[in-house]
Design a protein that fits this description.
With 255 residues, the chain is of the alpha/beta class. The protein has one domain: Ribonuclease Z/Hydroxyacylglutathione hydrolase-like (Metallo-beta-lactamase, Chain A, 4-Layer Sandwich). Helix content is 21%, strand content 26%. The protein contains seven helices and 16 strands. It has a seven-stranded mixed sheet with strand order 8-5-4-3-2-1-16. A hairpin with a 3-residue loop joins strand 2 and strand 3. Bound molecules: zinc ion (2 copies). The site of one zinc ion has 6 residues, from loops.
């Protein structure tokens, strides 16, 4: 399975985009970075978007993508998340005021945008042999992480979270976890702020990884606030764990 990192930071800065991870050219994890990273042809390839929560840095490019695909999209776009998260998305963003209500615009056999609620704890098959399962995490708003299953094993994507338990317990029931994507937003000196916002620092991130039974698979760190990137890199370096790498925008990973 191929993953392209369209953006992997906890906000936007010059040369730094928020979160968007494209799997096999068609399934997207979070929608904070899409349109400024892909050609129109590549944007047309996106069919399914899994949203972890309703914070703007994870949803904003839904607006731009739907605008760009208005005429061209062959089968429309599906946005997946839990019912509660989709309700927040619909009420506060795709509501006809902030963003046109693309879910009511007719398009071929359906609508340009379809919101599809998924149940937590069940693998939902999408395209190209990929199945995706939502598991709750602990952010400062309703949020889930995703477990992605393919022929190559399971990938864990935490989305935004502070210290949490459930998703790790689920991961520990899976045989073949081949990669973990874990957030780390702030440096250790901002631990109190991180706790208040439901985010991790290198100190709390490493404690999260201790909860995971799988100790060899690569760990990719994302959602760093760019202004603290250097400090976060140094603090992660002092952990002396070779399997932990900090993600970079534009990176392509094959599992
Ligand atoms: Zn975020
Ligand atoms: Zn968030």
């Amino acid at each position: 399975m191929r993953m392209k990192v369209l953006g992997c930071y906890g906000t936007e800065f010059l040369h730094f985009k928020s979160c968007g991870f494209l799997l096999e050219g068609s399934v997207l994890l979070d929608a904070g970075a899409i349109v400024s990273s892909l050609s129109l042809e590549e944007q047309l390839g996106i069919r399914e978007i899994f949203v972890t929560h309703s914070h703007l840095d994870h949803i904003k490019d839904i607006f731009f993508l739907a605008n760009n695909l208005f005429e061209e999209a062959a089968g429309g776009l599906r946005i997946y998340s839990t019912k509660a998260i989709l309700q927040l998305l619909k009420r506060h963003f795709i509501n006809g005021s902030i963003c046109p209500d693309f879910t009511s615009l007719p398009h071929r056999d359906g609508h340009l945008l379809e919101l599809e609620a998924i149940e937590e704890g069940i693998f939902h098959p999408v395209t190209k042999g990929i199945s995706v399962r939502a598991e709750r995490v602990d952010h400062n708003i309703e949020a889930v992480g995703y477990i992605i299953r393919s022929d190559h094993g399971h990938i864990v994507y935490t989305g935004d979270t502070g210290p949490t338990e459930h998703i790790w317990e689920v991961c520990n029931t899976l045989e073949d976890v081949v990669a973990v994507f874990i957030e780390c937003s702030f440096p250790n000196k901002l631990q109190e702020l991180a706790n208040l916002c439901g985010h991790l620092t290198p100190a709390t991130m490493v404690r999260e990884l201790e909860k995971l039974k799988e100790k060899r698979c690569p760990v990719f760190v994302f959602h760093m606030k760019p202004q603290y990137l250097k400090t976060i890199e140094e603090e992660i370096g002092t952990l002396r764990q070779d399997r932990i790498a900090i993600l970079a925008q534009g990176q392509e990973i094959t599992f």
